[in-house]
Design brief:
single chain; 76 residues; mainly beta; NE0471 N-terminal domain-like; 3-stranded antiparallel β-sheet; globular
Length: 76
């Protein structure tokens, strides 16, 4: 399997969407991430790529998320 690398990250009021460098996209509900529960839009927009674009970090929320991990999020 090829490594999933992000190209861009977007949000709306319900979803986190990651555009991949190969043209695919992954979109998951924000409600699946407890760390986003009380986050402001400003905090959500303060992300940066980590690990050669295989991950995303929100320092102010103490959250690191792998792009591949979005496929296996524990919805509980």
């Amino acid at each position: 399997m090829n490594t999933l690398r992000a190209k861009n990250v977007k949000f709306d009021e319900f979803y986190l969407s990651v555009e991949l460098d190969d043209g695919r996209a992954i979109s998951t509900p924000l409600s699946w991430y407890k760390e986003f529960a009380n986050a402001t839009i400003k905090e959500l927009k303060e992300w940066h790529f980590i690990c050669d674009k295989t991950g995303i970090e929100w320092e102010s929320l103490d959250l690191q998320l792998s792009v591949e991990g979005m496929l296996y999020v524990d919805k509980g």
